[in-house]
Amino acid sequence: MSSVPVPARPEELLIFTIARMLDDVRHVAVGASSPIPGAAALLAQTWSAGRMRVSVLGSEHDNFFTDGGRELFDCAAQGRIDAFFLGGGQIDGAANINLIGTGEYPRNRIRFPGSFGSAYLYFLIPRVILFREEHSPRVLVPKVDFISAPGCSPDHVYRPGGPYALVTGRCVFAFDRKHSRFRLTSIHPGHTVTEIREQTGFEFDTSSELVETPAPGSETLALIRGPVGEAVSKVYPAFAARVLGINAQGVA
Amino acid sequence: MMNTRALVPVESIDELAARVADGASVAVAPDYSGCAMEVVRALMRRGARNLHLIGVPQVGFQGDMLIGAGCVATLETAALTLGEYGPAPRFTAAVREGTIVLRDATCPVIHAGLQAAEKGVPFMPLRGILGSDLVGHRNDWKVIENPFAKANKEDPILLLPAIRPDVALFHAPLADRWGNVWIGVRRELMLMAHAARTTLVSVEAFSDEDLLADDRLAAGTIPALYISTLAKAANGAWPIGLFGRYAPDHAHLQRYVEMAATASGFEQYVREYVHKQRVSA
Predict the structure, then answer these.
(1) B164-200: b (≥16 Cβ within 10 Å) or e
(2) What digits encode the pLDDT tens for the residues A186-235?
(3) Which residues, numbered 30 to 89 in chain B, qualify as contacts with chain A under a Cβ-Cβ cut-off of 8 Å?
(4) Superfamily for domain range A10-91+118-138+153-244
(5) CATH, domain range B8-106+163-250
(6) What pLDDT shows up at residue A31?
(7) Do the chains contact at A124 and B127, CB–CB below 8 Å?
């Protein structure tokens, strides 16, 4: 590495932003194909001095479950998982997410893989962070074509969990569960409110305390590019090599 | 004690595949678990038809291949995903053309349905899911009021029927001579074997040791009671990897995705890699 510090890359800003949302979490679960949330969880784990548990689903090494695929879901239903991440081919202003496809079901014009565990985990994990790097009217729509998992439920429905925030490549929205609306809380450096309005298909509120998304300081960057990056490269080798320039041991 | 155990038959891959009848419901594992790819290729060669494929709880390459080969009538799964390889080409085409019936689910519904079958009960309740459009499309799911709720308190809850597959089909690292099958921590394979009427397993290798004799292995071993038929297939999960044994053949999987992008490319893939004897990776 050169002696002149490299400023935070966009991915590093996202890792830092998401990690700050996991401050007091005991156990966070993350998908094997979600490198940015995964790296954020590993950074937050480092901050917690190892108190936080991180489960990487589908990984042979960073997954301590021993009772098969069902255990994660039973664990969540008991309240043993505090934070999780969901994405969506489409996300709407009420935080409904669509993992099925666009157009009419079942013969969707564009078919996505499927709902996975979203319809369950969105209800049961207290802090679900929606993460989608692409921030465009194609993804952030007025109303999703299919509700894989609803953002909100009537009061009488058992629901300890739900959406907490939406993090995109342009900004951060907090989610107000009572009013079922997003509120723009921070804008990443180099982006503007006007641009975000143009690129967002749903209506949202704007925080009176709107700020620029804080960038990671040199200490955090050193962590991300050092010990955290090493851990990331074991779980997400392609991402670590491409973005952080860290190659996992044994990988050319 | 050992010599009083009935032996589980060991057959060739084609004989094992022949036990999957056309029209059968077949539970299979995701790519990160144990996929009996050699048997899947045998099913494609035979031209199996009208299968009701169940992903436990999701399915990957084997689903796309069986759909492409016209073997699947119904797909019941929480997802069909090729992970980092992008959209599943034959699945996507089949959805667009409406050639398969979709029973979209969510992961815990599949697990809980199999757990109901495991217990021999007709249904299972499950939290969450209410308000998902999945509920409206699954007329076999029901919403009831929790009969144990406190008086006058509304508490709707989803009931889903037991899933009892005709066949559980998977690949495992090891079996012993008595038909016990070691699956380690991949206990969704145990659940599948408990729930299904028939369990067909291909294995990397056979051990002469009794897997149930060692407590460290026994906890991750499916007893022969649940195993119907075994077949040996070294590297049998290729081109998908096998947990703890070998990694996916990335170059081949990439090639599959490229070739399967069109119907004719998929046919060529089948000619080259399913009908011809494969060269060991």
Answers:
(1) bbbbbbbbbbbbbbbbbbbbbbbbbbbbbbbbbebbb
(2) 999 999 999 999 999 999 999 999 999 999 999 999 999 999 999 888 88
(3) 30, 32-33, 56-58, 77-81, 83-84, 87-88
(4) Glutaconate Coenzyme A-transferase (3.40.1080.10)
(5) 3.40.1080.10
(6) 82
(7) yes
